[in-house]
Amino acid sequence: MVEGFETRGWVRFPFDPVLADWVAHARPRARAALDDPALAHWHDCDGTWFVGVDALDNDAQGRVGGSDPLSGQAMRFIADHLGMLPLHRAQVSVLWPGYPRPRRGEGAAAFRYRQTRDAAHVDGLKPTGPDRRRKVQECHAWILGLPLTEAGPDAAPLVVWEGSHRIIRAALAAALADHPRAGWADVDVTDAYQAARREVFDTCRRVPLPARPGEAYVIHRHALHGVAPWAASADAGPDGRMIAYFRPELPGGVVQWIDPS
């Protein structure tokens, strides 16, 4: 499993009753977030996506709604091989039929990219300013996805480009190499990132990762990933396709983030 993660940049875990129990506690709290006026700004894409950043009211050990701390196979894998960190409030990402529609303020080119390339991205490299230039702004350690609802495999699953983490990491490391480490967070990596992304599209296999409540997947922090469109034939309940995501940040900033370990 470790070798597969290092090669592919992702690993999926089968049904785990310990995790299923956590989901049973977390799901009502995630549903409540959808109607929280303080989180209303996360409803986007003409009502087809609740972005839900920091929307789940869990604590640093993952307790939510009276649950035990978050545990199970996926968490053991993280603790043994990637390093455990205090957990932030999880993102609650919910998709419904009709996704994708344009996000607020999204131009035609960005929307086409959402439609045709699943809005593929590496977490933490956010476009800013009128020219949408990118720096490493958030240094996530890993990405843990925990499905909260039953949904068909074509109901806007997360997708990942297999092996992309190696291409992305090498390109960004090269872009940063000539700059003092203390200033890496201020380095514009846009050109290197875009070139690496094109290489990924040309050479890496796109893999959808549908999963059920009680299952989990872990994605490498440098892996290119996105969300597929909701297929016309896809099915899900009224809660849509709901996933909780944890992405704790590394204490060592960009220097630790670019490290291949």
From TrEMBL:
Gene3D superfamilies given for it? q2cbj1_9rhob like domain
Q: Which domain of life is it from?
A: Bacteria
Give the protein's recorded name: Phytanoyl-CoA dioxygenase (PhyH)
Source organism: Cribrihabitans marinus
